[in-house]
Design a protein that fits this description.
This protein has a single domain, classed as Sodium/glucose cotransporter. It has 21 helices and no strands. Helix 12 crosses helix 18. It is mainly alpha-helical and about 475 residues long.
Length: about 475
């Protein structure tokens, strides 16, 4: 029933080389238009909404989909799509609730907003915490990229990780956000084309969708497995909503388009792309359960590619998977570097730094962040693999750090004391519920979010707010209320 294993051939490497030449050329060409750190990090607020949407979509996916979500699809079936759709709900609600607010805030980085909302102390504290979490979060993405290289290119995991870092830096260091945007459009086209081809090939191999449903009936129950339980889905949707609407890369895209209407359209188109993609990308992983029983779930999609795709087409699929992760990491490295350069370096070390110096520091900061991510990503296996590591790190550290950004732009009452209380209570509660009491992840997460919100809101009512902080946030909320 299956073809003989097809390793990468000379034609596959030619296709991959053409792909790299294309994206690197586009990225370096865009470097000609970067004259300042504002151009490098925010695109000068001239980004078309549709381009911002494609880039935002590409920033939210990575080879993590083909490793972690495909592993869930292989094990449990359609529930993997339901889990992935948490991003759709998060982005739709975010477009409705937050898009216009971020436009009105008129800031270059989310940290500038935090200073206006809470003060310079919070800005610095969350800058450091946020960079730390972004490093942890991106370890999982880079691990997925390394696993793809290990399976499809037959090189060690660590070599694949460092190769990915070098490629990302090659085009993001030159053109900044514009490089990311232009290459995202190219990579999105490649990704969708390759995923659609793989979908048709895998369904043809099993005799069609109906035959697959008859062979694996439990996999076509959208609530199959422990991830299909109400509490798991509720907890996962909750933290994805919080995480994505406080995601620096998503906020950066919302701020880079010209106006509020464009920001909302950008968010809605992003949601449409996120709605369609998992259907195309994850059905082959379900087919792999029938065609390749007994393989490592995280390697199921990759192994199926080597079985079904002919030379050349396999190279295109490798390029597509690389596209997904390289695009995400490029966005993350860019926005994390922007926070480091503007919110830490310029604020604490060199307030008088000029445009050229800030551009250089931004690029050096990007290299430093990428290096930390590459080192950390080699320990993801010890956390249980890509999906489990992402789920755990997102809940333990991401939620407490992001809540003050997400809810601070909605609620005026919480103050600086509430930010610190939220983060401390959230991390301690997460460790207690997960490590000490060993609750199921979904219950630990819900109780952790409750502890964060309780500490955040209670301190707003019980702890005093300084006159300077009150004046600053009053001015911010007047701007948010303008029409």
């Amino acid at each position: 029933m299956m073809n003989i294993h097809t390793p990468l051939t000379g034609l596959d490497f030619v296709v991959i080389a053409i792909y790299f030449a294309l994206v690197l050329s586009a990225g370096m060409f865009m470097g000609k238009f970067v004259k300042s750190s504002k151009d490098f990090f925010s695109g000068g607020k001239k980004v078309p909404w549709w381009m911002g949407a494609i880039s935002s979509y590409m920033a939210m996916i990575s080879s993590f989909v083909f490793i972690a979500h495909a592993g869930v699809a292989y094990q449990d079936g359609l529930v993997a799509i339901l889990v992935f759709w948490s991003t759709v709900v998060g982005v739709v609600l975010g477009s409705w609730i937050f898009a216009w607010r971020w436009q009105r805030a008129q800031v270059t980085t989310p940290m500038e907003y935090l200073e206006r909302r809470y003060g310079s102390g919070v800005r610095q504290f969350i800058s450091w915490c946020g960079i730390g979490f972004r490093v942890l979060d991106n370890m999982v993405r880079l691990y997925s990229l390394g696993l793809i290289a290990s399976v499809l290119l037959n090189i060690p995991l660590s070599a694949g990780i460092w190769l990915g870092v070098v490629i990302v830096l090659a085009y993001t260091l030159t053109g900044g956000l514009w490089s990311v945007l232009v290459t995202d459009v190219i990579q999105c086209t490649i990704l969708f084309s390759a995923a659609v081809a793989m979908l048709f090939l895998s369904l043809h191999e099993v005799g069609g969708l109906g035959a697959l449903a008859q062979t694996l009936p439990d996999h076509f129950n959208a609530f199959n497995g422990h991830r299909g339980s109400f509490m798991f889905l509720f907890a996962y949707y909750l933290i994805v909503f919080i995480k994505y609407n406080g995601n620096w890369a998503f906020i950066q895209r919302l701020e880079s388009v010209p106006d509020e209407r464009s920001a909302i359209k950008m968010g809605l188109l992003t949601a449409v792309l996120l709605l369609l993609f998992p259907v195309v990308a994850l059905l082959p992983a379900i087919a792999a359960r029938h065609l390749l029983p007994g393989v490592n779930p995280e390697e199921a999609y990759l192994t199926l590619c080597t079985k079904l795709l002919p030379p050349g087409a396999l190279g295109l699929m490798v390029s597509a998977m690389l596209a997904a992760t390289l695009s995400t990491l490029a966005s993350e490295f860019n926005v994390t570097s922007s926070v480091f350069s503007k919110d830490i370096y310029q604020r604490l070390m060199r307030p008088q730094a000029g445009a050229k110096e800030m551009l250089l520091v931004g690029r050096l900061g990007m290299v430093a962040v990428a290096t930390l991510v590459a080192v950390g990503s080699q320990f993801v296996t010890a956390l249980g693999g890509a999906f489990e590591a992402n789920k755990l790190l997102m809940g333990l550290f991401g939620v407490p750090i992001v809540i003050p950004s997400v809810f601070g732009i909605l609620w005026k009452k919480p103050n600086t004391a509430g930010v610190y209380a939220c983060i401390v209570a959230g991390v301690l509660a997460g460790l207690a519920f997960n490590v000490v009491f060993k609750l199921k992840w979904e219950w630990a997460t819900v109780w952790q979010v409750a502890a964060c919100l309780l500490a955040y809101v209670a301190c707003g009512w019980l702890c005093p707010t300084s006159a300077a902080e009150q004046d600053s946030k009053d001015g911010l909320f007047r701007e948010l209320a303008r029409r």
